[in-house]
Structures are given as structure tokens and as C-alpha cells.
Amino acid sequence: MCEVLVNDVYINVIDQLNELGVHIIVFPELAMNKKTEKAITQYLIDKKLNGNSHIQLVFLGSLWEDRVNMCMLLSGSGTVLLKNNKKMPFEYKNPEDGLFYTESLKSRPEKYSLLDVNGLGRLLYLVCKDGLDDIAQITLWNEYGVNMEIISAFTPSILYFENQSEKFNKDYLGIDLLTNCCNPRLQICNDNSIDIGYISVPVMNVERRRVVSNRIYFSSDEKCNNCDRFCNCAHIFTLNPNKLIKDTRFHGMEVEKLDKIKRY
In CATH, which of 3.90.79.10, 3.60.110.10, 3.40.50.2000, 1.20.1250.20 is domain 3-263? Predict the structure, then answer.
């Protein structure tokens, strides 16, 4: 698929979400290239100048260039707010030849950038396997007071991420969101619908008097079996810190899955 068409697909998704009043957009790992980044930045600038933008934050996923896998966060006006380079490489065993392959990263960063956002708290934005680094994450959660973690992934399994997010929810009262691509999940699953990502928030179980995770998944569907990685697809959630969930057994933040937009 040519770069111009790819850029148009991303802009179309963002434009639809903006029309629906979405404030925060998160793309998966390896979603961007430099031209896509520039196209999205220019779109945000134009929308803001015209006064018809609802978007406040765009997590661009990651860009791979010169053996650097970097995630980037833009403001609603197209300003770069944060960049983090991936530290932990992806490892893959090829079932055809039985050989192991490792993502060739040029360097391993020793620190991550954080961002304080009014209404959300302190944000940590990571690329895929960096979200499984126990030591780094616990340090950031505990000593640096991270309130919300965003992970852009390209992974066949989200199980270990779920375990980490549960720990973040229960022990640190943090909010965790993982967005992933359909393609690697569908390669190992035969189901027509498969969970590819989630948003997870802490809630208090009144009966048991302890904090638990309230996790809502977003899933592929039958059409995703023919996904070319550039289908126009997005899942929409509301996150309301000031509204209690609709269950008397629990107290905490409400998360609701609203809708899914998908066009080909």
C-alpha cells in the first residue's frame, strides 16, 4: 500500500474520531513512519487553527528508523509532548526454520520521559515489551508516582500485559491501556473474535474491602481475518474519573465501551 494511501487511512480514522468528540487517540506499535507523523501533525494544526478540534492527545504508536523504535505523543495542536525509545527488544521463534530472531535495537535507553496532564495525572508511554519490565515499571509507579500507563504493542499475546496491569491497578491505583494490532493476534488464534487490547482501571470491591481491576477489552471481528494492517478501524471508550460505576458492590471509575468504527 503506497504511503499516500496509508496516510489517508490514518487521517480518515482521526477525522471520524474527532467528529465523534473523542479526546484521546492511541495507535499501536509500528503504526507510523515520518511522512505519516507529518501528515497527522499538519492535520492537527489545521483543525486547531480552524477551531473545530476535540482532540487533546494523540499517542502515535511507534516509528522505526535507523534501528530505533520510538513512541511519540502529540498534543491536539500537533506539538510533540513526549518521546520514548524502546528498550526491550522483541524476540521471535520462526516456526519454519526453528531459529530465534531478536529486534535489532541500536541502544537501550536508561530513562523514560513522563508527562503530567491535568485531569489524568502523570503519564508513562511505552512501546510493547517495555511494559513487561518489572523493575523499571515498579520504580516508575512507586518512586515517580505514575498514574496512567499507555502501551502501544504489536504482540501475539496480551496475557503477561494483563498481569502487569492488574498489579498496577491493585497496588498503585493506576489506569492502564494497551492498544495492539489485530494481525499478530489472529496469526495464533482461530476464533472469529479475539481480544486484542484493553483498558483497565482500579475499583474498590466493597464486599471484600479490596481493590480489583475493572478491565474492558476491545476485540477483532470476522472481517479482521482478512486484515491488511491498514483497515480503517477504531474502538471507542469513555473514561469518567468523576462518575461511579453502576454497581453497588464496587466504588471507582466508570469505563464504558461505546462504539467501534470500521470502514474499508
Answer: 3.60.110.10
